[in-house]
Design goal:
Blueprint (H helix, E strand, L loop, with lengths): L1 E7 L8 E7 L6 E10 L2 H7 L16 E8 L11 E4 L2 E3 L5 H4 L11 E2 L18 E5 L4 E2 L6 H20 L7 E5 L3 H13 L2 E6 L5 H7 L3 E4 L4 H5 L4 E6 L7 H5 L2 E9 L20 E4 L5 H13 L6 E4 L4 H9 L6 E5 L4
Helix pairs in contact: 3-4, 3-8
């Protein structure tokens, strides 16, 4: 077993503290990863603050993990010591249900095992990537292409796949008009990926403060949703809208921006319920949907796609001592566009 240095939180109103976590002995198909970088996701904050339900504290968050293989089980065939690898939002699933067999492990009918705040197949609580090491079964480890730096790769394991998957599923590409709601950690990745897929991209953000960035990332247009004229001007425009905002918004106003057969897909996960008027959907055969990360195969496809198209998140590297301050800055929308923890500071 490996004893890893980590940062944990003991309650919804507590600051992070130094701690240690014992990682399990390697099973025959397990991979031991020395973590180099871990991204900070808004999901980490929701969970640490207890906003998505009861949490079994102490909690070590982190599901945007990039590092190096430091040991392997005797039957591991996909990886060897020294390989550059990543781990995303889940570390296992039943592997037997229809969804798992289709490569959609995120929708495992028995429930996938999340990287943190879950219970693994050994009955132990899962603890995430704000730590120096993690043990994961090889089937849930991703290969990071050489052209992507490990620091930039970390956010791709959540923010990247969370936006890639719906864009891929709803066929964003040439001839499609795609709007991205929000220009944060998820939103800026959605813009870059949709543009690389060939779609015409528009950003819908509360203000125009990040307009220059949005256009640089590949957006053709950028509108402020605080301006009521935006919803009049863009009515019936988009084939697909990706909502990345983790707060309650007026979904009916955004649904009015969809063209015939258009879809609004939620990837942001606010704690509050969202309300949809049926007549926002019926008249133009519009759809309101959700999307949860991606399966392991699709996540690897995303990493390869980002390598091929030179796509990387815009990141700010922080030390482990700065996690609490980074959480505050995320809540204040004061980050461009993803915090990444340098695990060597753990």
């Amino acid at each position: 077993m490996v004893t890893a240095k980590a940062r944990a939180v003991n309650g919804p109103d507590q600051n992070f503290r130094e701690t240690e976590v014992t990682r399990r002995e390697l099973d025959t198909t397990d991979v031991l990863i020395e973590i180099k970088f871990a991204g900070i996701c808004h999901s980490d904050i929701h969970t640490a603050h207890g906003e998505w339900g009861e949490v079994n504290y102490p909690l070590i968050p982190g599901h945007e993990i990039a590092g190096i293989v430091s040991d392997i089980g005797e039957n591991v065939t996909k990886y060897k010591v020294g390989d550059r690898v990543g781990v995303g939002c889940m570390v296992d699933s039943c592997g037997e249900c229809e969804n798992c067999r289709e490569g959609e492990e995120q929708y495992c009918l028995k429930g996938n095992i999340p990287t943190y705040a879950g219970t693994d197949k050994y009955g132990e609580p899962t603890q995430g990537g704000y730590s120096t090491h993690i043990v994961v079964t090889e089937e849930f480890v991703l290969s990071i292409p050489d052209s992507i730096g490990l620091d930039e790769a970390a956010p791709l394991l959540c923010a990247g796949i969370t936006t890639f998957s719906p864009l891929n599923h709803w066929n964003a590409g040439p001839g499609k008009k795609v709007a991205v709601v929000g220009m944060g950690g998820l939103g800026h990745m959605a813009v870059k990926i949709a543009h690389a897929m060939g779609a015409e991209v528009t950003v819908l953000s509360r203000t125009l403060n990040k307009k220059e960035d949005g256009l640089q990332f590949g957006a053709k247009s950028y509108f402020a949703t605080s301006d009521e004229d935006t919803f009049t001007e863009l009515a019936g425009t988009f084939d697909l809208i990706i909502n990345t905002v983790s707060a309650k918004i007026d979904l009916n106003a955004y649904l009015s921006l969809l063209a015939l057969n258009g879809s609004l897909v939620n990837v942001g996960a606010p704690a509050e319920p969202l309300e949809v008027n049926a007549f926002s959907l019926i008249p133009h055969r519009r759809s309101f949907a959700g999307s949860l990360i991606g399966g392991i195969r699709e996540t690897q496809d995303m990493l390869n796609f980002c390598a091929e198209h030179n796509i990387a998140p815009n990141i700010e590297i922080i030390s482990a001592d700065d996690i609490d301050h980074a959480y505050k800055r995320v809540l204040d929308s004061d980050v461009k566009y993803r915090f990444v923890i340098d695990i060597s500071t753990m």
